[in-house]
Hints:
The protein is α/β, with parallel strands linked by helices. The protein has helices at residues 33-44, 60-70, 91-104, 119-137, 154-158, 181-194, 213-222, 237-243, 246-252; strands at 21-29, 50-53, 74-78, 143-146, 167-168, 203-206, 227-232.
Amino acid sequence: MPRVALERLPKSGTNCMPSGVLILNADDWGRDIANTDRAMQCIQKKVISSVSAMVFMADAQRAAILAQEHEIDCGLHLNLTTPFSEPHCPPQLKEHQGRISRFLRAHRLAPVLFHPKLIKSFDYVVQSQIDEFERLYGMPVRRIDGHHHMHLAANVIHQKLLPAGTIIRRNFTFSTGEKGALNRWYRARQDASLTRRHVMADFFYSLPPLEPRSRLQQIFQLAMHAQVEVETHPVNDAEYQFLTGEEFAQCLGFQEVARGYHLHIPLAESIA
């Protein structure tokens, strides 16, 4: 298995502080009771830093109440692909999301293609979710990532639908050999462009695969000197058992999991 990439460690003289940070973020908060409750258990055990919240979903209302009661760091988990499941979700919103979803899921390359006929649908669906998040959580959205990573879809980026200055999730970090050269070039080019409007961690990984354990140890060690985000879905039994078991602490070593999604780069300095 390729080793974790190390070539993009922050250079001295940048706005980054010299110490790193390890952020474990649980996705799908509010999607349903099972997702919310598993993430809540991980928060109580202090093995995750933050969550990404879905709106217009079955457990969105309760999840927002829990987040406020327990002062949980929440970002918006932008959903363009999974049907909204909240009973009172506006039919028009479901219709527009359905159009977007059919396009994005039609082909694996669809997310990188700009669809001019869906400009109004993307604008409406994205803004509706931002507005609903701010209504439920009583605060402006400061962090956005995407369900199935569709916050990086061409329409979202080129229409500039994500508010400037927000923290957003970068593309997955891959080492040479893990993906094709063109794939890695496109991701790197997109990330470089996004830094003109947004703040991002230095590296981004998925918690799985959980084997070999050496992969996770390398990622956690990287966080000693860089800002690393790791996404997890505690509703998956294997991830939950790992996070709440003894092996997680062993893999961490001396590295600590951040309490909240906190990056060292001031937001104001990231806006072009």
